[in-house]
Write a structure and sequence with these properties.
FAD/NAD(P)-binding domain; alpha/beta; 7 helices; 320 residues; single chain; 2 domains; seven-stranded mixed β-sheet; binds NADPH dihydro-nicotinamide-adenine-dinucleotide phosphate; elongated
């Protein structure tokens, strides 16, 4: 089978990947971008995006991703269906396989594979998530839609604590469901939540069912896992903050990852430990996780890749 050689391979099609593509294409790197399993990335599961600068009236997540894709295509990014199933970064040329078949050799690779929010997996949760009817894994993205309303949030880590606190400033009441009798979050974050008047913390409490009218969430049935007692909490929003899984499994043999699987970049750059391989977006970011920060690091990755190629080419010219 013929092996394709490209200057710049971009893996992933969220705001990080498309921004990297726009910059790489405009720098004549003829990027090839593989969209992956979820073309458009996490934003395609969001309704309205109101915090991305440049859209004063807001825009839906899927519509924004189509605009980003079209902008990348306008500068001749080769946007392709398919996902990268395997890589080999052991040599000078970086290898990647598409759908387990086609082999690509790339001078530079930009990883923008993102992270996937974890959900509880309850049927009712997935139903209202898919309907866009009140289930969310991002308080910063969607909290505003629940202004002056009552919401429930699941989780007890730093994300849940931070998001509960964020929601408490918008919502009249936030009920936090903690499955054990203690927080996982750092002491200071947990204390902030405990000291916020309109946050009620229910320990040893899990979700039995997300309640709704068939269109939107109207409440949450919870149970105490010590007593098995159930009760209903009225709420219009159900926030899940039980962690994210970075989509970095195929890179672990070659790249330095932290203990939860996020790619470790050289601070202030998009560089990984492998020269010529760069990372952008949520695959390396467990803290900010915003579309705009992903886009920013996508830009950084393309600029770093361009500089890497330029330096390599000037060495080749000097040797010739
Ligand atoms: P974590 O993995 O730290 O926490 C996940 C939380 O979700 C845990 O409390 C866990 O409960 C709970 N959980 C998991 N599954 C379920 C379930 N099925 N039902 C109910 N609860 C469940 O994830 P985070 O996203 O909070 O944080 C990830 C990393 O990012 C951490 O290292 C964190 O410190 C860091 N971070 C730092 C921030 C900051 O410093 N500003 C902000 C946000 C994150 P249990 O405790 O019982 O396992």
């Amino acid at each position: 089978m013929e092996i394709e050689h490209v200057k710049c391979l971009i893996i992933g099609s969220g705001p990080a990947g498309y921004t990297a593509a726009i910059y790489a294409a405009r720098a004549n790197m003829a990027p090839v971008l593989y969209q992956g399993m979820q073309p458009g990335g996490q934003l395609t599961t969001t309704n309205e995006v109101e915090n991305f600068p440049g859209y004063p009236d807001g825009i839906t997540g899927p519509a924004m991703m189509i605009e980003l894709m079209n902008q990348a295509k306008r500068f001749d990014t080769d946007v392709r269906d398919g996902w990268i199933t395997k890589v080999d970064f052991s040599g000078d040329v970086h290898k990647a396989w598409v759908n387990g078949e086609t082999e690509i050799h790339a001078d530079t690779i930009i990883i923008s594979t993102g992270a996937t929010a974890k959900y509880l997996g309850l049927e009712s949760e997935q139903k209202y998530l898919n309907l866009g009817g009140g289930v969310s894994a991002c308080a910063v993205c969607d909290g505003f839609f629940y202004k002056n309303q009552e919401v429930v949030i699941v989780g007890a880590g730093d994300s849940a604590a931070e998001e509960a606190h964020y929601l408490s400033k918008l919502c009249t009441k936030v009920t936090m469901l903690v499955r054990r009798d203690e927080f996982r979050a750092s002491k200071i974050m947990a204390a902030r939540v405990k000291n916020t008047e309109n946050i009620e913390i229910l320990f040893n409490t899990e979700t039995d069912e997300v309640l709704g009218d068939g269109q939107v969430v109207t409440g949450v049935r919870v149970f105490n896992n010590k007593t098995q007692e159930k009760h209903d909490i009225p709420a219009t929003g159900f926030f899940v903050a039980i962690g994210h899984k970075p989509n970095t499994e195929i890179f672990k043999e070659y790249l330095n990852l932290d203990e939860t699987g996020y790619i470790i970049n050289e601070p202030g750059t998009a560089k990984t430990n492998v020269p010529g391989v760069f990372v952008s977006g949520d695959a390396a970011d467990h803290v900010y996780r915003q579309a705009i920060t992903a886009a920013g690091t996508g830009c950084m990755a393309a600029l770093d890749a361009e500089r890497y190629l330029a330096a390599k080419e000037s060495v080749v010219e000097a040797e010739a």
